[in-house]
Write a structure and sequence with these properties.
Length: about 160
């Protein structure tokens, strides 16, 4: 009987500290793993945002250079809709489509020449007056224009 009481006391004295230490170790491990996972996620986020930053700056640089080209400047300065310039229109469409690095990222494009009253996109060239929703391009930013394309009532394609 006395041995049983001593055994129970020793078991309790040994078991309780072991359980407490196990709980503390488990909580420490979970906290460290969470911190490690958060750091990994942050690293991936920074890496991905850096890649997108490089991609977007490359696209921006390409279109800045393209829009500064002499042929494109000559085209956008045309007072009348430039149907008489098919080679320059095709060159502008190819330029807006992008080079081989950008081609996979640009699906549709639109150039709205509001001052001269015509639009060139990946489908062709048409007068601004043919738009069904004329107020939309004037009232939205470029990023909204990409998401909500202006739909023309009819288009004339460039061959």
């Amino acid at each position: 009987m006395v041995l049983d009481k001593v055994f129970v006391r020793l078991a309790v004295l040994v078991t309780i500290p072991l359980m407490v230490m196990g709980m503390i170790s488990w909580m420490t491990y979970i906290r460290q793993e969470s911190e490690k996972n958060n750091m990994t996620v942050e690293l991936y986020t920074e890496e991905i945002s850096g890649e997108y930053e490089q991609l977007l700056s490359m696209i921006k640089r390409y279109y800045m250079e393209f829009s500064a080209s002499e042929g494109f400047r000559r085209l956008i300065q045309q007072k009348a809709i430039p149907y008489h310039m098919p080679a320059q229109l095709r060159e502008a469409q190819n330029g807006m489509k992008g080079n081989s690095l950008i081609d996979g990222f640009v699906e549709d494009y639109e150039f709205l020449n509001l001052s001269q009253g015509w639009i060139l996109d990946n489908y062709g060239l048409f007068p601004y007056g043919d738009l069904k929703n004329k107020e939309q391009p004037r009232n939205q930013s470029c990023s909204e224009g990409i998401q909500k394309r202006a739909i023309p009532s009819k288009k004339q394609t460039v061959n």
